[in-house]
Each structure stands twice: as C-alpha cells, then as structure tokens.
Design brief:
Helix 3 packs parallel to helix 4 and helix 4 crosses helix 5. 28% of the residues lie in helices and 26% in strands. The two termini are 21 Å apart. By secondary structure, it is an alpha/beta fold. The strands form 3 sheets. Strands 1, 13, 14, 15, 16, 17, 18, 19, 20, 21 and 22 form an 11-stranded mixed sheet that branches.
C-alpha cells in the first residue's frame, strides 16, 4: 500500500465517467475534446480518444508536448500564447501533429503571426470569447471585429471560436445548469453565424465545462464540447448534481495522525495535499469543508495548514490514530496538480502507480507506470 497522503483513482469508475460523456457527445452529434488539465496523464487521454474523443485540450505548451510525445496527435492549447519561446515550441510541435492555439487579442495574434511567418509556417488558431466569466477572451461585442483582423493575417488560419463560462448566468454563479449551458451554446453559435456572414469561415464552435457540457451541446450550431473534470468528478460536481458522490473516481487517502480532543481529528494532508481554490461556504454550492470524508460523512475537514488537515467530528466517531480515511476533494483538477504521482485501483484491487506527466514542474520526459511489487513498465 502507498504512503499517505496520496491520490487514489478507481479505474472502473473513471471508465464509466469517460463512457458517459462520450455518449453525451454522440447523442448531440458534437465532437468531444476533453480538457486534459484534470488528469495530465497520456494514458488517460488515450482512453478518452478510444471512446471517441476527437482530440484533447490542454492549457500549456508543456502539457501538449507530453501528450504528443505519447501519441496524441490532435491538440488544442486553449490559452493565449504571447511569449516567443512558447510560440516557437508550439510551432515545432505543430510540425508533427495537428495543433490549434487560442488567441484573444490583436496583439497576441500579431505575435503568433510574426513568429509563424518567420518560420514559413501557418498556425491554426481559435478566437476565445468572453461570455461572462471575465477571464481571458475578447469581449463578446468586439469579437466580430477582432475575428476580421485575425483572418487578415496570412500566417494564421482562424478556424473556430471558443469560450469557457462554467456554471454562470448574468455574471453570477448558478445552479441552473441547463439554462446556463443552453445560453452559452446559443451565444457562441449566433456569433459564429455572424462571422460566417461576414466572410470568415468559422468551422468549430467550442463550448462547455463539465457542469454545462450536456446542455451547451443541445444548442444548434455548437460543434464541440470541452469538459475536463468529468473524467474523475469531484465534490463540487456532485453538489452541482452532475454526478453522485459514488461516481467520484478520485479520492485523497490520508492517515489520522492525532486525535487531541473528542471532536478533533488531524490527518497528514493539508494545503499541500488538497486544492483550496474551491473554498467552503461560498455561493452557490455552500460546500462544508474542503472535502467529503467517506468514512465519516458528517465530519467536516474545516481547516488546513501546510501539512495538517483538521477535521471536526462527533465525539462518538470511532476513527482513531493510525486509521486511513478517504476524502473526495472539492476540486480534483488542482488537487491532482499537487501530487507527483497517483495510485490506481481497479474493481477494488490495488493496483498501479503513475505520474501526472503534464503537471506543473514535472519532468515532461518522464512517464512510467509501476505495478506494486512487480517492477517497472515503460
């Protein structure tokens, strides 16, 4: 058994999640391009492709390089590249695979075009549009004008538009995922039609997060959805109603290291183990604590220091020092990024060890799986 704290993935649950989203895409006749930032592991990306995904999405050039090195040959970097070194790396990668790059400004587009032209290349790009999240993306009302400018740059080939809005309506978080998703899809499909009418040959309209993908895909004119979290699911998605807690394929396994009082347990996992970007008691989900504890559903992981997790429990709780517990984190994507390796079980039997090869600061050339007690598999 592995040391704690660690992430453990239930492969059978993961496979069901992959198949479920693939079926949603097939039902609505849209392409599925899952975001690999959740798992960062090429073998999982390949499972998604085997289930019908058209390609994958990544957030960084380094992630794209790792995925391409392991045979993934259709990758969308859904992030603006504005640094020469990253643009150069993307162009080199694009010599071997289909690579699409996000852009959201004329300045960024010109940087891409200048570097591509200097290498005698043309780069496929998609324009990112802000549909309410106020993150990256050109303002919706300014997107058509920017698309015209980008389309005029010979070294760029504008083939699509994309957005990420998540569970948002009227600028606020919402639990009405159906309305949020359909509105997102319709906004982008309408914009694509206006661009086509202006002579810009937009092919792909790419939308959808895990909570909204199934509904955004219903909008006529949407061609692609890009969910990521669905591969593992997490407590946040369960609270949204996208899945049940039983569908969550990833848990953090931790050990109780102290029980100083009847109402307090301390585990060996803190902010260096659990993501803290999805905070407790925030609308609309109002999650209690930083994760759901399978062995004590009413307990609350209410405080984290770097290496300690403080859990409020009922005095009659039977957990004691030395016990191992399993916690579904609020947000699995950024939790995975905190771990150098993860472990797998399949149908309840242990399993394998793997490194998230695309994680931040990971050695991108390193990717191995280790069967516990049975040596290395390259």
């Amino acid at each position: 058994m592995p040391d704690t704290p660690c992430v453990v993935i239930d492969v059978s649950k993961m496979e069901r999640n992959i198949e479920s989203m693939a079926n949603i895409a097939k039902e609505h006749r849209v392409k599925l391009r899952p975001h690999a930032k959740t798992h960062k592991m090429p073998w999982i990306a390949k499972r998604q492709l085997e289930h019908g995904a058209a390609g994958i999405t990544v957030a960084k050039v380094s992630e794209a390089e790792v995925m391409a090195a392991h045979g993934v040959d259709d990758i969308f970097i859904a992030y603006p590249l504005v640094v020469d070194s990253k643009i150069e790396r993307a162009l080199r990668l694009g010599e071997y695979i289909r690579l699409i790059v996000g852009v959201d400004s004329l300045e960024g587009a010109r940087l891409l075009a200048e570097t591509a032209a200097a290498r005698g290349r043309q780069l496929e790009v998609r324009l990112e549009v802000d549909t309410g999240l106020r993150r990256t993306g050109v303002a919706y009302d300014e997107a058509l004008a920017l698309a015209r400018d980008i389309a005029s740059l010979d070294a760029l080939r504008l083939t699509g538009i994309y957005t990420f809005r998540g569970a948002l309506m009227n600028g606020k978080a919402t639990l009405d995922l159906r309305s949020a998703g359909i509105e997102e899809g319709r906004m982008m499909a309408d914009l694509a039609e206006r661009m086509r009418a202006a002579g810009i040959p937009i092919e792909d309209v790419s939308v959808g997060s895990t909570p909204t993908a199934a509904f955004a895909a219903m909008a006529e004119g949407v061609t692609e959805i890009r969910p990521g979290t669905y591969v593992f699911e997490d407590r946040m998605q369960a609270k949204f109603g996208v899945c049940s807690l039983e569908d969550c394929a990833a848990v953090v396994m931790a050990t109780v290291v102290s029980r100083p009082t009847d109402d307090l347990l301390v585990i060996d996992g803190g902010s260096k183990t659990f993501a803290t970007d999805v905070q407790p008691n925030v609308d609309p989900l109002r999650l209690q604590g930083f994760g759901h504890i399978l062995e004590a559903p009413d307990a609350v992981l209410e405080r984290l220091s770097e290496e300690h997790g403080m859990i409020r429990v009922a005095p009659e709780c039977s957990l004691k020092v030395g016990d191992r517990i399993h916690i579904i984190p609020n947000h699995i994507c950024s939790t995975i990024n905190l771990h150098n390796k993860v472990y797998y079980v399949n149908d309840g039997s242990a399993g394998e060890e793997s490194r998230p090869a695309g994680r931040k600061n990971a050695h991108n050339t390193y990717y191995k799986m280790k069967v516990w007690g049975r040596g290395m598999l390259e």
